[in-house]
Amino acid sequence: MTLLVTGSAGHLGEGLMRQLRATGRDAVGIDIKPSAFTDHVGSITDRDFVRRRMKGVRAVVHAATLHKPHVATHPHQDFIDTNISGTLVLLEEALAANVESFVFTSTTSTFGAALTPAMGEPAAWINEDVAPIPKNIYGVTKLSAEQLCELFHRKRRLPVLVLRTSRFFPEPDDSIDVRNGFSTANAQANELLYRRVDIADAVDAHLLAVERAKAIGFGRYIISSTTPFTREDLPELRRDPATVLARHFPEAPALYASRGWRMFPQIDRVYDNARAREQLGWQPKYDFARVLDALRSGEDFRSPLAEAVGSKGYHDVVFEDGPYPVVS
């Protein structure tokens, strides 16, 4: 089966191409930027380019996108062109080429305002039944692309799975408050409790989705590390997550103290990946328990794939505050 990967010069696209090549699978990477993992340079909005690349393809993983860090630097039209129009071109050409499965990389950012409860309310439990309330052009266009995917399944029977992937980038946080208050490793270890996934686990989820799409038909799945928290923890997580963490992992406070780390002062949402584990057979390996194992051994808690892909940033320039503009 030839697999087409869009966005092959990006974090996830490169991760997919590395894994596919390492296992000897027939894969073609496309991107607007050249890279060691891009076989053909071109835009997903260029129908002739996409049509040529779709020949002989039996599965598509559509990871190319404009991301949240581009919101501060790109006009809305660019998001519409890439995230909506580009997805439409790929869906139409995949259908014309008799592609057997189409996997769309979406984002938990589509949930938008649903992720932050009102002050005094418990943390939000986020699963696929929560209604999205996009709060920027990124979320709006990714949700619109999801709806296009669903339409192509419903009207044309194209097998499509949508993966709402949580953050996996290695760069420092886009919040200036988090950057100033926590080391990058500390912040990302905290996030694995409720809103982050290692890129190796994200790649595994996408490849499982390719295999399962034909049998499932259409589905949306949250792709995030398995949380140790439960719904009963939600009120306390909003006001004192350190106490909740210590209850689930009694050794965590001492291990954190040995590195000078600390827990966030509050957690506002928890992603539930149960549906992806049940329906895709996905079992993420790089969770918070692995973080603690790494702290005991002095190793990096990230996967070898995360280290190999490394930091890419999202722009061709470096901004005053880092690889992309930050918000306060």
TrEMBL record:
Coiled coil: none annotated. It comes from the Bacteria. InterPro entries: Epimerase_deHydtase, Lipid_A_modif_metabolic_enz, NAD(P)-bd_dom_sf. It holds the Pfam family Epimerase. This is NAD(P)-dependent oxidoreductase. It comes from Lysobacter soli.
